[in-house]
Amino acid sequence: MRTVLNHTCLLPVHLNARSPYSQPFPSLSELSSALGGLGGVSELEAETLRPVNLLQERNILPPKRAPPPEPNLSNDLRKVNCSPDTFRCTLTNIPQTQALLNKARLPLGLLLHPFRDLTQLPVITSNTIVRCRSCRTYINPFVSFLDQRRWKCNLCYRVNDVPDEFMYNPVTRSYGEPHKRPEVQNSTVEFIASSDYMLRPPQPAVYLFLLDVSHNAVESGYLNVFCQSLLDNLEKLPGDTRTHIGFVTFDSTVHFYNLQEGLSQPQMLVVSDIDDVFIPTHDSLLVNLKESKELVKDLLNALPGMFTHTRETQSALGPALQAAYKLMSPTGGRVTVFQTQLPTLGAGLLQSREDPNLRSSTKNVLHLGPATDFYKKLALDCSGQQIGVDLFLLSSQYSDLASLACVSKYSAGSVFYYPSFHHIHNTAQKQKFQKDLQRYLTRKIGFEAVMRIRCTKGLSIHTFHGNFFVRSTDLLSLANVNPDSGFAVQMSIEESLADTSLACFQAALLYTSSKGKRRIRVHTLCLPVVSQLSEVFAGADIQAISCLLANMAIDRSISSSLSDARDALVNAVVDCLTAYRANGSNIQPSGLIAPAALRLFPLYVLALLKQKALRTGTSTRLDERVFSMCELKSQPLQQIMRMVHPDLYRIDNMTEQAALHLNDSVIPQPPLLQLTAEKLTREGAFLLDCGSVMYLWVGKCCNETFIRDVLGFQNYASLPSNMTEIPELQTTYSERTRAFISWLLESRTFLPAFHVVKDDASTKTSFFQHLVEDRTESAFSYYEFLLHIQQQMSK
Amino acid sequence: MRRWIYCGRFRVYITETRFSSCGSSIFIMIHYAAVPPIGGVRATRRFSSDSEESPGSRRESGSAEMEAAVFILSLVDCCALIFLSVYFIITLSDLECDYINARSCCSKLNKWVIPEMIAQALATVLMLVSMHWFVFLLNLPVASWDVYRYVKVPMGNMGVYDPTEIHNRGQLKSHMKEAMIKLGFHLLCFFIYLYSMILALIND
């Protein structure tokens, strides 16, 4: 039977004793009558619909991060349903009609992470892949078998025949039980694709590195870090014996490197005609990695030294990209671009558009969109030839990331940004760059991929968010697919879903693995359909809703304006809470009432409004703002939630109480704290986990045992101001802290940068800007925001 | 001294006959009699090698001729606009049904955005110049919408039809609706011009 989830069992703490309605958690029958005759509502729903007065509830945050809501399905369906880490819907109860969805004023969409690293993945090796004849859906656990020989598609309701080979189950070696086969028992499967699924023989892994070697680039010193990192990871690049690699460097001219097997050392070929760049030789610029490994290593060792005395300050990125496109067109693959300044020469040259005086403007922020369509066109050309372009921007000045990022956005690449990168003056960035490169070079990759998302008849997808190119109505073209990117789609309900009780969604990703095998990864999600507004609210997944709203706000700020986007976000909360109030009967007319499922909604929206991407009034560099927007649109959900609403823990007094015991280590579980300076105290040390960066804030009067045992210094005053890691000491405190931090980092792919922040350091602003519940000179505090919402609702 | 004949209401000048490699071709200049100055005349119907014009102006017939000519030109223009709208609708529905991909669809459509704008502007200006205020005011919103749409394209987009945005936010549907509305409007204008042209021709 369903049990009441712990995290929702918070008794409201009523500060205002005079409120006539303050009472402990009402009984089920009282709730039923109060919520207007729900009757037969389950315990789970009653819990998520419990009204919460946001103005009075002080401890709104659950002690641990809430798990995603469980859909209201039978046990067997729930067991086989897709993992919420892979496939998540904003509403776990799908409304029956568009009118009902409009009444709820919540967005309907899916958040996917289809190529996530999985620990167990059933791989189907059979010759026939069973698919519906009309809608081409793959067979999944939610189809219905009419008898042993026919199955009914759950997306288009067509009846199909079961092929003979399918009747035999290779796992149990039995015949006549098609519903026991692994495709029908698992919602996440991987098929091995036959040649029908290939337009051409599967391509080998081809990697091209485009390196900026202008004076600026050499000054910043990234070349050393990159070459060292690649040398260390050369063996671990995903691929097989056919893997190819190539290098192109550029400043005001483009340089190619001949790495043919027989040569004694790499040969550099310079093309100075950047207006019509051409490829000097046809082979041996992209060479087989196994055969030319020695030459590649020689080149990587020599590269940093080759340009130390360069005086070139211009950067011809556009021509270099055109050259890379020409080089890679025959095969496709991945191009990695390292850029340290604004491209100033040749095609695609950009102007400096940022006005430093307008960084903290409260009015509109301009230049959020690209300045030229050169990079977009190039990205579309690359996408057509299955070339994915990843961008590493390591600049300290304005580099028009809004235009440059287009080259990755539409070719399914990723964007990485290291503002003010310098190998000596900014060691934190250098370490982050090293760690990121380690993950980037060794992570799994899929080539020449396409993805299709299918929904039950009646639902249709109208907007897509993420780094890919939408080639036709529901076909997403991804030149490269990597395990760290997430996607989002928005749906609408075209026809009524009244005659079905289950809505299903299927995401199928067809890709070529780095070993040259063609695979199809299929994820299927099933959710119930409901006809009551209260049930829609009960099934709302607030984290997914916040992420989808973030995507929509960014789209709106680029197409219309930033202030429009901010207003739309506030209106989303106002409309939703008004709809909830209008639906339920008024038990508490005063105060701001929200159902328990949506009680964190205003908090997450306030946190979004204070993100670098969407904030106004605080000085934000344009490139950092644009990068924050790119992150919000392309990261998977957990990463976004940590970025938007970081986790704050007190770690100087962690105890073994309620600790986890894993693998003979004890991992303490301190409770989550609300992001306000009220929760900080001078006598403590606090850890803020923001996803890509972690801060350890040490109070002025923090107890010396902690500083000595964990940080390795005698007292607060002797702590250096730029500490970036916790030393490994043999004390219990240190082991406990390190166990906790490693437990937090366990399933993370990109390791965060770590900073130890003292209370009086100048870097403490970067820590305090994450405390979203506090008032700043240009933004509301949490309580003020609630009052603002209440005021808007009463208009 | 140029030879001319009457062809209906039009005076047709035969300028030269030239033998080209594919046979002879006659270059014909179509000239409609402009409103003659007061006192100017129009020659009577006959072959004449001199361009003398007999006295007695018939200004109404001159202006009626011009009317008809204006409407014929607008009719031809409107036909072109109808064909363009149909072409847009067909291309967009091809994209909807997956017969072509977004990039080729958008490049095809973007090629014809400026010609469409020019044709629409021509029709509007013709109506303005010939002082048909009602039809001018009918054409003006469409022409200004065309110009607005063209000018409002953000800098990073590849034209009015952008392949990366066309599948987002229902843009495909809104473009299709726009093309349908334009088709209906041009058909309406076609019949208006046809009717006005016949009226003008009859009144001659």
TrEMBL record, chain A:
One function term, GO molecular function aspect: SNARE binding
Gene Ontology CC: one annotated term: COPII vesicle coat
Compartments where found: Cytoplasm, Cytosol; Cytoplasmic vesicle, COPII-coated vesicle membrane; Endoplasmic reticulum membrane
Domain called Sec23/Sec24 helical: residue spans: 541-641
Zinc finger Sec23/Sec24-type domain ranges (all copies): 129-166
Record flagged with keyword Ribosomal protein: no
Domain Sec23/Sec24 trunk span(s) in chain numbering: 202-441
Gelsolin-like domain span: 668-741
Protein's name according to its UniProt entry: SEC24 homolog B, COPII coat complex component
UniProtKB/TrEMBL annotation, chain B:
Transmembrane region(s): 68-90, 117-140, 183-202
Chief localisation class: membrane
Pfam family, one: Cornichon
Species name: Cyprinus carpio carpio
Membrane topology field: Multi-pass membrane protein
Any single biological process term in GO: vesicle-mediated transport
PANTHER family for the chain: CORNICHON-RELATED
Keyword annotations of the record: Membrane, Transmembrane, Transmembrane helix
Name recorded for this polypeptide: Cornichon family AMPA receptor auxiliary protein 4
Residues in coiled coil: none
Subcellular localization, as worded in the UniProt entry: Membrane
Family assignment from sequence similarity: Belongs to the cornichon family.
GO CC aspect terms: membrane
Lineage top rank: taxon: Eukaryota
